[in-house]
Amino acid sequence: MATFLYKLGRLAFRRRHFVALIWVALLTLAGVGAASAPPAGNSSFSIPGTEAQKAFDLLEQRFPGASADGATARVVFKAPGGEKMTDAANKATVNRTVKELSHGSEVASVADPYTGHAVSKDGTVAYASVKYKVSGMELEDSSRTALKDAAQDARDAGLTVEIGGDALSAAPETGATEVIGIAIAAVVLVITFGSLLAAGLPLLTALIGVGIGVSTVTALAHALDLGTTTSTLATMIGLAVGIDYALFIVSRYRAELAEGREREEAAGRAVGTAGSAVVFAGLTVVIALVGLSVVNIPMLTKMGIAAAGTVVVAVLIALTMIPALLGYAGRRVKPAGQRSRLLGGARAAKKPARPNMGTRWASFVVRRPVAVLLLGVIGLGAAAVPAASLELGLPDDGSQPVSTTQRRAYDLLSEGFGPGFNGPLMVVVDAKESDDAKAAFTEVTDEIKGLKDVVTVTPAQPNKAGDTATVTVIPNSKPSSTTTEDLVHAIRDAGSGIKAKTDAEVLVTGSTAMNIDVSQKLNDALFPYLALVVGLAFLLLIVVFRSLLVPLKAALGFLLSVLAALGAVVAVFQWGWLSGLMGVEETGPVMSMMPIFMVGVVFGLAMDYEVFLVTRMREAYVHGEKPGQAIVTGFRHGARVVTAAAVIMIAVFSGFIGSSESMIKMIGFGLAIAVFFDAFVVRMAVVPAVLALLGRRAWWLPKWLDRALPNVDVEGEGLRTEPGSGPRDLDEDRELVRV
Hints:
Blueprint: H1 2-14, H2 16-36, H3 51-62, E1 72-78, H4 88-101, E2 107-111, E3 125-132, H5 141-156, E4 160-165, H6 177-193, H7 196-224, H8 228-258, H9 263-290, H10 298-329, H11 345-349, H12 357-367, H13 369-384, E5 392-393, H14 405-417, E6 425-430, H15 437-449, E7 454-457, E8 461-462, E9 468-475, H16 482-502, E10 505-509, H17 511-545, H18 549-574, H19 579-582, E11 590-591, H20 594-622, H21 627-654, H22 662-694, H23 703-708, H24 727-738
Parallel strand pairs: 5-11
Antiparallel strand pairs: 1-3, 1-4, 2-3, 6-9, 6-10, 7-9, 8-9
Helix pairs in contact: 1-2, 1-9, 1-10, 1-24, 2-7, 2-10, 4-5, 6-7, 6-21, 7-8, 7-10, 8-9, 8-10, 8-21, 9-10, 9-17, 9-20, 12-21, 12-22, 13-18, 13-22, 15-16, 17-18, 17-20, 18-20, 18-22, 20-21, 20-22, 21-22
């Protein structure tokens, strides 16, 4: 592989006009597609294999035309102080609003608060339910505007009016923090390279890669039902890995220049060596992201595949466009150790050479491996302690910022009708096989009324055929509480006995039940997914490092960093530590997708640093250095770059903490803290300490396995005999073009 990538790097350097033209054309094509595509909405949420989804599908069949998947809105009214919603003036205002809401072409129905028993006991709060014919993703802006205008007219009449439900769902906003993250990345690159031009190359290529990836996601979002969160995730991952991969290759290019090689030769060798590490690091990220499909949650699968596509683009750009841009830059990109005059290069040149920080740190770890290892493991273990209290759930309007109308509507409904009113349970009774459907419906309602934590059970509402009915159950606790979850399980348990008596099947659905089923499905899938992803990556790393213990150490270190990161997420988002600093307005259960998502993404990103740092150690070991000295050599060449890459990735992820959507905020924080733990504790401390303790055993591989494995030559051993630029290289380039 190193030889092929070496030739590719030299070809891209020499044919830079052609390479640049290809990428600019792809960016333009993706941009045009994104601009002309219909806008994305919120991705539809179907969870195959769950009881909630089965009930939802049954409603589609037995209640045709009911728009079971249609958007919903709750227009919540509160009377002024000292008044009630049943007062004549307030009642007239609500009736006008209901009439105004029913005029929309996409409106399926509007429930009047006074005929639908939607007025609180104290008479201060009422709500009108609006049902639409289309989903929230397909709802036209005119319908949303009409909804807002109707609410505003009621406000002008003196009522407090807020709107809940998914009809007003909007794309998340990240604010200025995302830009700050990119700015920090730029500063780190300038400090690392000592050159504005060299620092600009990774940023430029990362932005081009993200532009192509996200524009493609945007262009396909409506057709594939990708949703707004998908493009945000693709941006987050694409920026982070795009900058890092380009950073690795530019850094190696400058190191090759420092050894006296010509620029084209240096570009080829940089792509052949660091590029090999980039390919395998990218493969681990792609495996982890695509592997999310095993969970069998369509939204999660789409998010993973879209982000994986952006990573593939980042790898290809790093291997081709970086050497092309280095060709354009010429002598303005300095060899390693030299700075541009603008940044004090002349003064730096007069300083005596001394071991860099990476060399000094590695030497210390090699001398004190046990102390460093114990300190790192104990520290991560302490950070992981809160993870033992992890509670999972999915965000609802109660987790929205208090500045949003959805959150205020949620609070008004809780105030007027109780906390469980925001998470009603819909019980679907399938009595098609029952001899007496009406008796079955009565049996279900009577059974549910006798359960704990039940406030209200509405009478069964049968369909036209009379073989299926819906029963609405209002819990006494809020949707995200464990008490509500227990009630869902209690209804399902009672359904087993009802089926034995009446042959009627009882299914529980609704957003609350769906969230509970999703959490359970994710919990059940976590360990199989972990085994799949870590297993595949373990095999891949065996091929890369030609060792059994090094990949094993990499996987165990990753598990430590993920547990520590989950502990930090629990402390902030569930316990409320530093919640004000992070902009967390409402603590509660951690998003159900967070553990499995962190396992996937963080594993891939962690392997970036593992591959790049340990590859330099193996390269030194293969070339004859002793194990301890190889560790120091690897840090001398790689520690500065890995540190810069980690700081950049942390900055990019932290930029998304400012998002208005709790899901994006939590993902940004979780990934940022996980990269911090993995890069600076695991890869910089635990890894060299373990390698120092293992010595030569770290690189042991059974002879039979060594013969069976393909030789991918990540260390670039084949390049030691590769000739420099000359007539033969021109022939090789022409041959590569034909291929």
